[in-house]
Amino acid sequence: MFFNIAVNGKPLGHTSFELFAVKLSKTVENFHALSTGEKGFGNKVSSFHRIILGFMCQGDDFTGYHGTGGKSIYVEKFDHENFILKHTGPGILSVASTGPSTNGAQIFICTAKTERLDDKHVVFGKVKRA
């Protein structure tokens, strides 16, 4: 799985991800289906609406486009699958949520170790190459 990255329409390259489907099959299935649009909706073209230096880049809000939307393929939102994996450093791919049963389309990529997010946000992949 990969994202093509551009700034103001200028291509910068692509970022590929390793997804942890064995440990987080439901979360990975949601991300993959929304990224490809295979369910008839999703975010084949998306943006990072929130970038905090030294913390993370958040995006994939394909319904609100600014951090207030983004449904899942299961229901509007779904519950955390598990918290086995941790936010161990830059490149960790995680689900953005506001609490239990609020996982949807939004994801974030950590740019630093963010232990304070452990047991609150589901880690389901990591950047392989940027």
TrEMBL record:
Q: Please name the GO terms of the biological process aspect recorded for this protein, alphabetically.
A: protein folding
Please write the reaction equations for the catalytic activity of this protein. Answer: [protein]-peptidylproline (omega=180) = [protein]-peptidylproline (omega=0)
Enzyme class, UniProt record, top EC level: isomerase
Q: Which part of the chain is the PPIase cyclophilin-type domain?
A: 2-130
Q: Which GO terms fall under molecular function for this chain's record?
A: cyclosporin A binding; peptidyl-prolyl cis-trans isomerase activity
**Entry-linked InterPro entries:** Cyclophilin-like_dom_sf (IPR029000), Cyclophilin-type_PPIase (IPR024936), Cyclophilin-type_PPIase_dom (IPR002130)
Q: Which GO terms describe its cellular component?
A: cytoplasm
Q: What EC number(s) would the UniProt record show?
A: 5.2.1.8
The alphabetical list of record keywords is: Isomerase, Rotamase
Q: Function of this protein?
A: PPIases accelerate the folding of proteins. It catalyzes the cis-trans isomerization of proline imidic peptide bonds in oligopeptides.
Q: Which family does it belong to?
A: Belongs to the cyclophilin-type PPIase family.
Question: What is this protein identified as?
Answer: Peptidyl-prolyl cis-trans isomerase
Lineage summary: Eukaryota, Metazoa, Chordata, Craniata, Vertebrata
